[in-house]
Design goal:
The protein is α/β, with parallel strands linked by helices. Helix 1 links the parallel strand 3 and strand 4. The longest helix has 16 residues. The chain is built from eight helices and eight strands. An eight-stranded parallel β-sheet has the order 1-2-3-4-5-6-7-8, with helices on both faces. It has one domain: TIM Barrel.
Length: about 220
């Protein structure tokens, strides 16, 4: 069994670990499995058309196994209306391939829930660190929740993690200087289950979500 790091900004290739690298849209990268998308922080109107062309190419790359991170963020300077337009356009672009979508969301969860209702993709909220009530709402609407470094220190978040069904979970390092194995060890303690059980459960989640993509089904380098 392998440790699955669903979202990282660092180029790590660790033994017995499967990591999805979050590629910058203009970055020339095909070394390992990656995700690609127009992040709301970095949207600029003058570059949108060029970056969408890059994204189209990325989504057809056999190493690109997810669209993301994309989403909405009410704390960034980018116009929220433009964010929504770009977010929707990326979801439309994904219609033929239907790759899983890794979501960045800040103070925009209701908008995310509403917009994504019309799509039958698998959606993963990365870096989840909010309250139980919101987690319940997201789970009810079919989202997966990915937890990161804050799981190590936030007791309230640990309770949310404990209450989240194991078949709706992922773990990640994001941009933290921390081992995914450390996060798994803490997560297993919180769930009060053997590490091996957690590894198996998240491996099954990965297969359920990512093998739905045709390109992943025909390029099963995970096993």
């Amino acid at each position: 069994m392998r440790y699955i790091n669903i979202h990282t900004h660092k180029l790590n290739i660790h033994e017995n670990t499967f990591e999805i690298y979050n590629k910058k849209i203009t970055e020339n990268f095909t070394k390992q499995h990656f995700s690609s998308g127009l992040h709301p922080w970095f949207i600029t109107e003058k570059n949108i058309q060029t970056e969408f062309q890059i994204l189209k190419t990325d989504l057809n790359n056999k190493h690109c196994i997810a669209l993301g991170e994309i989403g909405l963020d009410k704390l960034t300077n980018t116009s929220f209306e433009i964010q929504k337009e770009v977010f929707k356009k990326q979801l439309e672009l994904n219609k033929k391939i239907k790759k899983p979508v890794i979501i960045h969301c800040v103070k925009s969860f209701q908008e995310i829930i509403q917009i994504t209702k019309k799509y039958d993709y698998s959606f993963i909220i990365h870096g989840y660190n909010k309250k139980q009530e919101l987690a319940n709402q997201l789970l009810k609407n079919g989202f997966y929740l990915s937890f990161g470094k804050q799981l190590l220190s936030k007791e309230n978040l640990q309770q949310v993690f404990k209450n989240t069904p194991i078949n709706k979970l992922f773990l990640e390092t994001d941009d933290a200087k921390i081992s995914i194995k450390k996060i798994y060890n803490i997560a297993a303690e919180i769930k009060n289950i053997p590490l091996e059980s957690l590894l198996l459960a998240l491996q099954n989640n990965f297969k359920t979500v990512f093998y739905e993509s045709e390109l992943v089904r025909t390029n099963r380098t995970f096993n």
